[in-house]
Amino acid sequence: MSTRCSRAKELGVDNCHEEYEGEKEYCLFHKPEKIGSEANRFYRELIEKDNPQEENGRFIFETMADFTGYIFPRGEDENSEFFKDSEFKSYAIFEDAIFNCDIVFNEATFKSLVTFKEATFEKKVKMRGVNFEEQERKTSFEQADFLESVDFSKASFDGSTNFIAATFEKMVEFTETVFKDSVDFRSSEFKHLTYFKNSIFEDSAIFSQVKFEGGYKTSFEEARFNGIVKFDGGVKFGGVTDFKITYFDKIANFNEAKFQQKVTFKDAKFSGSAIFYMATFEDAAIFYNVNFNETAHFWRTHFKGKSSFDYVNLKKTVNFRKACFSGEVSFKNTLFLCEGGKIGENFRHKDIPWPDFLLEAIKSKSDNKSEEGTFNYKNIAEFSHTTFEGETNFENANFKNQARFEDSSFDDVAIFDKIEFEKMANFLGTKFERSVTFSQSIFRDEVVFHYCGFSQGVVIEPFYRKVMIKQEGKQRIHISEYEEYIIEGEDELRELVKEACEPEERFGTNQALKEAYRVQRITYENEGEKERADEMFVEEMRTRREIKKESGTFFEKLWAYFEKPIADWTCKYGTSWKRVLGMSGLLILFFGGIYWLLNRFTEATIRYINGRTISTSIMGLLDSFYYSIVTFTTLGYGDMHPTGILKLLSAIQSIIGAVFMALLVAVFARKWMR
């Protein structure tokens, strides 16, 4: 008669209960459902089978513990902590085991091989502070199913670890976990909250083809990757993803990664190459204050939401070639050092082949191949063939080496204000569908605008006025597709810049500014940026006023001087209801003070209905302000009336007040309707 039950036969193991004689389908250890006394008996027999030593309430397994295919039932409360603080000195095999109860391994120690391959955890799993000390063979959770929450916080994995194709249905905690050797989560699925906060990966970490699903948050905040890390192969981040203050010491590979919600790399540091080839950011992508100490590749990356690269330091080559920014993007105060860089032999990892884009680059530019296993990159900030569909802002950026934007497309407003281009700036064939500004930018080397398309104008006057002359000998400057000059010496360049670029030589500074503000206003209007459109309208009107002063007729010049206090000071040309309120308050105080002073030093006064005049004390001043408010708002209560010259002043104030009240309603209504 067989001594193996049907489940043992199915799994190909021989670890049934010693009393099994083949009369029933399952032995005690492999029986699917065990309830009541049978469940408690399971744990008693388990102790008798492996005969572990008991020391201070903890079990020490001296010999191999084979629990393959066992089904751990829910018994008494203490059964869930059966393995807590236990020590396994030999193999611990839990392959194909099924845990029908909460299972606690907290502070347990595995000194040899341990495997939970294809195990199923139907209830909560607690492995907090567990030590996996085996270094020669892998610790395996391959294809394990965790149906409830699992906690590996502060666990330590001394050897390589395998979580390939594991499934986590509920919250996962790897907070402050230490992986001292390689760890592989390839093809795993995380369907709930996932935390790797403050975890340390001493060797390679593979997350290829992993799916972080369910729309829940995934956090690697303050994690440290000391080896190569892979999030490639179409890894999917379904919820908000957090890489804040994360440290990447070697190559970080995010090829073809998909971020479906907001992702944050704020204050992260990439000491090795950062590769985001063909990655997709469906929502906001925040790279604020990130340090890229090696090459950064965003080739063919698609940013569909708002993107921020503000205050980023790019010390080596950066490549955004053929990237697409569908939403607003900002590179404000970004430093492009671009000192060149290379991917060396560290990239040649046995599990990480060369990415397609790198192979293509090596094939097409073999002259850059410096030595076996390495590829040198040019000292450039690469944005060629890139599409910017939303507003783009490079304000205060600093390009220390070449900047290439050739054949790129800016479909919305492009801001290149206050930038320093230390080396060549190439905008060959770039298309600007809306306004573009280079205000107060500095070009210290050659700048190319051949075959550019400026559909709605370009503000160039401020930056051409600030062209810096630093080099000796011949220099080349390209003004447009029709003009190219080769000049010798500083004097000739200064004369060229004055002749070709300074707008006052053509049609006057204010004319150029007026046109720039008009184009900018129209752009903002079309894009629904009403506040910014109003700002441009005010600047346009102020510039028109200055033009009238310079070249208008006598009456136009006269009106220009009255226009400032009447139209600008009062309401900023009908755009500011706050300005109307402020001016109204000042006028009320001004007239109130005048009434009080005239009452005090002349015979003109303000009388109450009973014939008494207002006093010259502080209370009289308050009464004057009250009378001023009533007059300005044209309420006319009738409890006070002026005499003498105050009648004329009151009439003037009432007229001004009526105008301001109407103006306030008009400006306020316009503001909210927009």
Tags for this model:
674 residues; alpha/beta; Helix Hairpins
Polypeptide structure, described:
With 674 residues, this protein is α/β, with parallel strands linked by helices. The chain is 26% helix and 23% strand. Among the domains are: 422-506, no CATH class; 509-571, no CATH class; 577-673, Helix Hairpins. The strands form eight sheets. It has a 17-stranded mixed beta sheet, with no helix packed on it. The protein has a 16-stranded parallel beta sheet with strand order 4-7-11-15-19-23-27-31-35-39-43-47-53-57-61-65. Strands 8-12-16-20-24-28-32-36-40-44-48-54-58-62-66 form a 15-stranded parallel beta sheet. The longest helix has 28 residues, at 646-673. It is elongated. Mean pLDDT is 81; it is low at 341-377, 459-490 and 492-508.
Write the topology of this structure.
Layout (H helix, E strand, L loop, with lengths): L5 H6 L25 H14 L2 E3 L2 E4 L3 E2 L4 E2 L14 E2 L3 E2 L4 E2 L3 E2 L4 E2 L3 E2 L4 E2 L3 E2 L4 E2 L6 E2 L4 E2 L3 E2 L4 E2 L3 E2 L4 E2 L3 E2 L4 E2 L3 E2 L4 E2 L3 E2 L4 E2 L3 E2 L4 E2 L5 E2 L4 E2 L3 E2 L5 E2 L3 E2 L4 E2 L3 E2 L4 E2 L3 E2 L4 E2 L3 E2 L4 E2 L3 E2 L4 E2 L3 E2 L4 E2 L3 E2 L4 E2 L3 E2 L4 E2 L3 E2 L4 E2 L4 E3 L12 H9 L10 E3 L2 E3 L4 E2 L3 E2 L4 E2 L2 E3 L4 E2 L3 E2 L4 E2 L3 E2 L4 E2 L3 E2 L4 E2 L3 E2 L4 E2 L3 E2 L1 H5 L8 E7 L2 E6 L1 H12 L7 H18 L3 H22 L2 H18 L5 H25 L4 E3 L9 H15 L7 E3 ...
Parallel strand pairs: 2-5, 3-6, 4-7, 5-9, 6-10, 7-11, 8-12, 9-13, 11-15, 12-16, 13-17, 14-18, 15-19, 16-20, 17-21, 18-22, 19-23, 20-24, 21-25, 22-26, 23-27, 24-28, 25-29, 26-30, 27-31, 28-32, 29-33, 30-34, 31-35, 32-36, 33-37, 34-38, 35-39, 36-40, 37-41, 38-42, 39-43, 40-44, 41-45, 42-46, ...
Antiparallel strand pairs: 1-2, 50-51, 67-68, 69-70
Helix pairs in contact: 6-7, 7-8, 9-10, 9-11
